[in-house]
């Protein structure tokens, strides 16, 4: 073998993937130290930041240089670190901040899920229920502190997607929007702001609804909240139902149950908006593949292709009539779905 002709690129690919856990650990630690908030005040050296945060200066410098290598921070010639566009997303309360999402995604439960990935692979689903003794949702219900981190993380993670959906989908003409499993109501709030004539109902678990985001002057008198279980029932009297990033949490049988509950209450002329990332063709680099492994490790769900979504809809007596893509980081797609007995031509162009 001629070692002089050895191509190092495959080596870097394999070893970078293998050590990827260090990137998660580094960004999670830096966010918890509020490093981006400190640098936002002025560029700072690692020694300055270490003094502010009470950590070792050399260790922090090494961590920030690692993150600067991926473009998350920038180190100038005098050793001061600056924010990049990516680091701006790590600031507390900044527009489109992902800080709480980073905290949530680097919580111990996800390290446990990742550490048990081999067992999830053999089983075909998450082992968190074995680790916690109950399914994830029951664990969160019994641990308010963990649930608060989860909910704040989901708001942060969802905000860019919510904005992209509201910018893409024309909500005018709908009178009552029901957001099924809508969390704290970030998307519903945006949809209602786009259509001042509409009212909205936020439907989710009671603990989540206690911290909803709808109580703002602009939406006064136009919203209600209702606690419930979307496996058992969905509120009636909506002409637009919304399922955003719900189906990817669940296996096929569970998804069909949720879709059937929606189908049962849909009125003539009503629509179901399903917002999910649609898996691209094989061998295509895409964020959705990481999300798919997260579902395997932490929940019972998965990411799906368009054809797989259509199979779910058909099993629930629903039909896909239109697909729109959004400008979100996850390439979130908006799928418009109607009851099957309404035979309508596909409204999507270019299919």
UniProtKB/TrEMBL annotation:
One Pfam family per UniProt: Dimerisation
Keywords: Methyltransferase, S-adenosyl-L-methionine, Transferase
GO MF terms held by the record: O-methyltransferase activity; protein dimerization activity
Protein name (Swiss-Prot/TrEMBL): SAM-dependent methyltransferase
Top-level division of the source organism's lineage: Bacteria
Species of provenance: Nocardia flavorosea
InterPro entries on file: COMT-like (IPR016461), COMT_C (IPR001077), COMT_dimerisation (IPR012967), SAM-dependent_MTases_sf (IPR029063), WH-like_DNA-bd_sf (IPR036388), WH_DNA-bd_sf (IPR036390)
SUPFAM superfamilies, per the entry: S-adenosyl-L-methionine-dependent methyltransferases, Winged helix' DNA-binding domain
Record carries keyword Methyltransferase: yes
Domain named O-methyltransferase C-terminal: residues: 124-316
The O-methyltransferase dimerisation domain, residue ranges: 16-90
Annotated PANTHER family: O-METHYLTRANSFERASE CICE, PUTATIVE (AFU_ORTHOLOGUE AFUA_4G14580)-RELATED
